[in-house]
Amino acid sequence: MERFNNSPGAKVFFGSIRACGEGISLVGASRIVILDVHLNPSVTRQAIGRAFRPGQQKKVFVYRLVSADSPEEEDNSICFKKELISKMWFEWNKYCGDRAFEVEEVLLKECGDLFLESPLLGEDVKALYKR
C-alpha cells in the first residue's frame, strides 16, 4: 500500500470493493475503475473515498464498468436509485439547487480525462472483450 501511494513506479493497484472499503488509504490513485456492483451504495462510496480525501487538490476520476443487458446492469440501476433516494431524503435542503451535487451523465469526449480520450484505449478495451 505504501509503495502504491508513494512510488511513481507503482501504476496499478487491484482490490475488491470490500477489501478497499475500510482501513486503507489509496491517495496515490488518480483513477478508480469499479468492476463489481455492491448492492449497498455506501460500501462503494466508502471504497471510492479511500482515494479522495478532504482538502485534496488532485482530481480523481471514478469509472464503473457494467456489462450491458446483464443482471449486473440491473443491480447497478438499483444502487443508483438507492443513492438518489438517500441524497434526496437526507441532503435535500443542504444541497438543493447546488449544481456541484447534481448527478448527470458525462459524455466521453466531454469528461476531460485524456486517458479515456486516447484512441489506443478503445482498441485495448475491444481486445479485452475478444478474449
UniProtKB/TrEMBL annotation:
Molecular function, one GO term: hydrolase activity
Subcellular compartments: Nucleus
Alphabetized InterPro entries for the sequence: CLSY/DRD1 (IPR044567), Helicase_C-like (IPR001650), P-loop_NTPase (IPR027417), SNF2/RAD54-like_C (IPR049730)
Domain Helicase C-terminal residues, every copy: 1-107
A GO biological process held by the record: gene silencing by siRNA-directed DNA methylation
UniProt cross-references to CDD domains, sorted A to Z: SF2_C_SNF
GO CC terms of this entry: nucleus
Keywords per UniProt: ATP-binding, Helicase, Hydrolase, Nucleotide-binding, Nucleus
Protein name: Helicase C-terminal domain-containing protein
Name of the encoding gene: Vigan.06G012000
